[in-house]
Amino acid sequence: MSNEFFVVRESYTDFAQAYEDERNQTITRRCRVCGAVFSDRKYDRFRVRFVGKKEGDFYFAPICIIVSEKFLRALYDNNITGFSTQEITCTGWYDRRGKWLDIDTSKYKELMVNGRAGSTQMSYMRSISCGS
Hints:
Layout: E1 17-20, E2 26-30, E3 37-41, E4 46-51, E5 58-61, E6 64-68, H1 69-77, E7 83-94, E8 108-113, H2 121-126
């Protein structure tokens, strides 16, 4: 079993991409005090579809971070806290031509950062060691 995980960067070279499903619905609220706009999902599970054959361990879809079980295991193994996970609903995994692919999506979860990671969140994650 491999102890590697891959973070897909902005180049997205050959990796599948995650797209928000059109059926996701959000409720927009405005703060009465400061006027800030907040968006909440109407449904608990984020709906997403993937396009591309090559699987990654980290995906960013609008308003959602999706990670694999291998990525989560690396976080747990390195005692990283300040996050929670939630199931996602995958509406399909397709190749670039639109053909449906039989890929197991149950290993992917939504990662919600609820700690005080702030702007250092991604640089902190880059220094994680997976172990051997």
